[in-house]
From TrEMBL:
Domain F-box: 11-51
Annotated SUPFAM superfamilies: F-box domain
Pfam families: F-box, FBA_3
InterPro entries: F-box-assoc_dom_typ3 (IPR013187), F-box-assoc_interact_dom (IPR017451), F-box-like_dom_sf (IPR036047), F-box_dom (IPR001810), SCF_F-box_component (IPR050796)
Name this polypeptide is given: F-box domain-containing protein
Ranges annotated as spanning the membrane: none
Organism domain of life: Eukaryota
């Protein structure tokens, strides 16, 4: 119904922005095509930043039944399972027309609506926005035979998005021609053409096993890992990387299990504004909090709860029972097995299980939030002959995934 004064087109820009900022990203993109004034409002940088800040936190899931396609489920304490919006953002498998082989993109990190993928054929890293379907590659590491993505972060001093990598270089000695393997840490900045080697980095000697950094937890602009990293394996401490000064240090590690022979879990997270660790031993869940951060660094037991016996978790194949924890809201935590479809949403304040969540695939425990914010590095040409990622259809559902 049209009201006096010209209807919705008579709205001032501020009122229109207040309406559009509440819409999903797909709707905002459609509204840009209505008229020039709507496009100006929906493309303004301040509007895009406000819109991104309102997007819900989602959890990336690997859907085995859809060819390993990534999807997302909202992370809300009071959200009913059926109300969770499922969207297929991209497919990590791209067939090559010439030789019939496939390129696989491995999900490495997410931040501010950006996704970092690693291309399987040459190990190149790609940064993309699955909502705007823009992408480009990060700087190439030509001398590294193997690379491991360690952490993706925003460098506040330069305004750059950067990926820190552990690279293994094969170097030939002058005498005898023997090949040695050297380990370095590099910074790959979006929009830059050359990588940068960090002057001080842990574990200069080659690790005996494949380093498993995992996805770090960011707290106070510092990335944190458990003892799986090369240096922490022997020290039992946590590795911390200051994203401002881009330097490493070791921190006090969280307590381990009293019975390491039993099935247990230990996972870092930021809960209620504090760096915490969730320790699961059998059906007991402990939440430890790091006190006096940067000083004494003492771990204090904050919560101890008894979890209910697991139901049908829909285990996939013969994968190990590795449990992970993820903060959902204030005093709420999600516990799930990486080889199962089901997860338990637990309210720590009320000390009760809120519900079970069926992810529809294996959870990867990567948090994602949509964003339409523009980035100049997407205008740069990508590396030659690189296979572009395959995005979903504009409505989020294509026949391939029906």
């Amino acid at each position: 119904m049209e009201v006096s004064g010209g209807g919705i087109h008579a709205l001032c820009e501020d009122a229109l922005a207040e309406i559009l900022v509440r819409l999903p990203s797909e709707s905002v993109l459609r509204c840009r095509a209505v008229c020039r004034s709507w496009r100006c409002v929906a493309a303004d940088p301040s509007f895009l930043a406000a819109h991104a800040a309102r997007r819900p936190r989602e959890m990336i899931v690997v859907c085995m039944e859809h060819g390993m396609t990534r999807s997302a489920a909202h992370l809300y304490l009071d959200l009913e399972p059926a109300a969770g919006r499922r969207r297929f953002y991209l497919s990590p498998v791209r067939p090559l027309a010439e030789d019939g082989t496939s390129t696989v993109f491995c999900l490495r990190a997410t931040l501010d609506g950006l996704v970092v993928l690693q291309e399987s054929r040459r190990g190149l890293y790609i940064i993309c926005n699955p909502i705007t379907e823009q992408w480009t590659n990060l700087p190439v590491l030509p001398r590294c035979s193997t690379t491991y993505a360690c952490g993706f972060y925003f460098h506040t001093l330069s305004g750059e998005y950067r990926l820190m990598c552990h690279g293994v270089e094969d170097e030939e000695e002058e005498e005898g021609g023997d090949t040695t393997r050297s380990n370095y840490h590099y910074v790959l900045s979006a929009g830059s053409t050359l990588p940068r080697r960090l002057s001080r980095a842990p574990s200069s000697e080659a690790p005996s096993t494949k380093p498993a950094y995992g996805i770090p937890v960011s707290y106070r602009e510092i990335l944190h890992w458990f003892s799986e990293h090369p240096q922490g394996t022997e020290t039992g401490k946590m590795l911390a990387f200051d994203t401002v000064s881009e330097t490493f240090r070791l921190m006090s590690g969280p307590p381990g299990p009293e019975r390491p022979d039993l099935e247990w879990m230990r996972d870092l997270l930021v809960l209620d504004g504090e760096l915490s660790v969730a320790t699961k031993l059998d059906l007991t869940l402990d939440i430890w909090v790091l006190q006096d951060y940067g000083a004494a660094e003492r771990w204090t037991l904050r919560h101890r709860v008894r979890l209910p016996p697991p139901r049908d978790f829909g285990l996939i194949g013969d994968l190990p029972m590795i449990y992970r924890a993820l903060p959902v809201e204030r005093n709420a935590i999600l516990i799930a097995c990486t080889s199962a479809r089901m997860g338990t949403l637990y309210d720590l304040k009320e000390n009760r299980v809120c519900r079970l969540i069926d992810f529809g695939g294996r959870p990867t425990f990567v948090v994602f939030s949509e964003s339409l914010v523009r980035h100049a590095f997407f205008d740069l040409p990508p590396f030659p002959d690189i296979t572009p990622p395959k995005f979903s259809e504009p409505d989020g559902e294509s026949e391939e995934f029906a």
